[in-house]
Design brief:
Layout: H1 2-29, E1 39-46, E2 57-60, E3 63-74, E4 77-85, E5 95-100, E6 107-112, E7 125-127, E8 129-132, H2 136-161, H3 163-190, H4 192-215, H5 217-249, H6 253-260, H7 262-283, H8 287-294, H9 296-318, E9 320-330, E10 336-347, E11 350-359, E12 363-373, E13 381-391, E14 394-405, E15 408-415, E16 418-427, E17 432-439, E18 448-457, E19 461-468, E20 478-488, H10 490-497
Parallel strand pairs: 1-7, 2-6, 5-8
Antiparallel strand pairs: 1-4, 2-3, 3-4, 5-6, 9-10, 9-20, 10-11, 11-14, 12-13, 14-15, 15-16, 16-17, 17-18, 18-19, 19-20
């Protein structure tokens, strides 16, 4: 009997232990603890928690640290109660997000952020920063809208390109593109030699600039030294100004007494009172100034006189006169051509230019002689002789008139004592000028064509480069570079302003 009771006790103990273990394992599988210890609660609010269930995991950096223990509605927003492990302490700036694991995965709450500059959240604390990631349904709706837009665009393209007219238009477009490609290819092939020549000229120009800078290193050093001298002078000037201000503060000199002497202050007050008395008399119309201020007739006459003076001064301000001297080095012949031009600008949109040119190449002239001889009983014969004569060191003249429209200017008149025309284009606030000139139109020879550019620097200097007589049939074309000096002669402008100049 006793043995039977012992066996029953053992069986009862075994069953009791098994029940306890089964209950514990059930709670562990359901992610619930038998006793709520080692955890604390935080609260977070979302506008929507669609798809999120109670018991959903709470993760930080992909590691589960708690679960969602409650979901309820509060003031139109979803309130989540997060049950977190006590070892995980969060700061007040932590961010809570509802995330989706995979395309069709479950929802969970992800926590991120949090810095030591903010305090820790205690039991029942509220996470202020929450964000809901894009919901799958919302994303699908947006994808559907994009698909609808693509369909609308496709229909529009189909309506434009569909049918015989659209097909014909598309065919014409491709044919035009093909013709354009062929034309561009032919243009490039025709101008290969010209492009090579331009590259060669630019290389030569670069070499000339290098030589020019090397030859003027001493001048550049002098300019830097002048800047240093000016800086030292400015420092000395500031020292002098500080000394003068210190003397004024100490009451030295007239300015110092004016600031610090009470008697001088009283005198100044009396002077101001006298000025006030004079102003009162003027306001009452007493004296010449009073009549001038209060009499309309006097003021009208004065206004007319001032208008006449202003009109004269405005004309003088718009009238500009400038002189420039330049020298061009002709690379092919090794000669130098010099210019001295005076530019007269009565207004901003038109100008006159006169000048002298010294051209060492001179001008080539041809003389044709026809001689007819007859022999008794024979056929008359004619002899044709051509004589070329080159005049060197010839002095020629410029006399041109021009009109400007914005950045474009057109010139016409005498170019080196021959008729011609020129075109100028200004860029970079008139610091860079591109020029093209055509003159010396002869029946037998090609006209003299010249193209180049001028770059103005250091206010009164400019550099120039280009091609001279590039259409010559006698080998007279040459690449040129040069420098020039440009300045405004105020005395000459004053003398010229005394003579009437027509202004349109």
């Amino acid at each position: 009997m006793a043995g039977k009771s012992g066996a029953e006790i053992k069986v009862g103990i075994f069953v009791f232990v098994a029940v306890i273990m089964l209950a514990y394992m059930s709670l562990q599988v359901g992610e619930r603890e038998l006793l709520r210890s080692g955890v604390y609660d935080l609260v977070v609010y979302f506008d929507s928690v669609t798809g999120l269930k109670e018991g959903a995991p709470v993760e930080i950096a992909g590691i589960e640290v708690g679960r969602v223990s409650g979901i309820e509605l509060e003031n139109g927003r979803a309130k989540l109660v997060l049950e977190l492990e006590d070892r995980v302490r969060l700061r007040a700036d932590v961010v809570a997000r509802i995330m989706t694991r995979g395309v069709l995965g479950d929802k969970y709450v992800a926590l991120s952020g949090g810095t030591e500059a903010y305090p820790e959240l205690a039991e029942g604390g509220v996470i202020q920063r929450s964000d809901r990631s894009a919901d799958l349904e919302v994303l699908m709706n947006k994808i559907g809208q994009i698909a609808d837009d693509i369909g609308t665009v496709s229909k529009s393209v189909s309506s434009v390109l569909g049918g015989p007219d659209g097909e014909r238009g598309l065919r014409d477009t491709f044919e035009n593109l093909r013709d354009l490609t062929v034309t561009l290819n032919q243009m490039v092939q025709r101008n290969v030699e010209s492009i090579d020549l331009i590259v060669t000229n630019m290389r030569d120009f670069s070499g000339d600039l290098r030589d020019l800078s090397s030859a003027n290193k001493q001048s550049i050093g002098s300019i830097i030294q002048n800047f240093e001298t000016a800086s030292n002078g400015l420092r000395d000037t500031l020292t002098t100004v500080n000394s003068v201000l210190a003397k004024i503060d100490e009451g030295q000199g007239a300015a110092g007494r004016l600031v610090n002497d009470e008697e001088m202050g009283r005198n100044l007050h009396e002077a101001v009172a006298s000025l006030e008395s004079v102003a009162r008399k003027i306001d009452e119309g007493q004296g010449t100034l009073g009549r001038l201020v209060n009499d309309d007739t006097t003021s009208r006459e004065l206004d007319k006189a001032l208008e006449g003076i202003n009109t004269y001064l405005e004309k003088q301000e718009t009238f500009k006169t400038s002189v420039d001297f330049g020298a061009e080095y002709l690379a092919d012949s090794g000669d130098t051509k010099t210019y001295l031009n005076m530019l007269i600008e009565p207004s901003a949109d038109h100008f006159y230019m006169v000048g002298v040119v010294a051209n060492p190449n001179g001008r080539t002239r041809e003389t044709e002689t026809f001689t007819t001889t007859s022999v008794d009983g024979g056929k008359p014969t004619t002899t044709h002789e051509v004589e070329e004569k080159t005049e060197r060191d010839e002095i020629t003249f410029n006399a041109q008139i021009g009109k400007r429209w914005g950045d474009l200017a057109l010139r016409g008149g005498l170019f080196e004592s021959t008729g011609g025309a020129g075109l100028d284009y200004y860029v970079w606030d008139d610091r860079l000028k591109f020029t093209f000139e055509a003159y010396d139109f002869d029946d037998e020879d090609a006209p003299h064509l010249k193209a180049g550019a001028k770059l103005y620097f250091l206010k009164n200097f400019y550099a120039m480069a280009g091609m001279d007589d590039f259409a010559s049939e006698h080998g007279g074309s040459s690449f040129y570079t040069g420098l020039g000096l440009y300045f405004t002669d105020d005395d000459l402008k004053y003398l010229m302003s005394a003579s009437p100049v027509p202004i349109k």
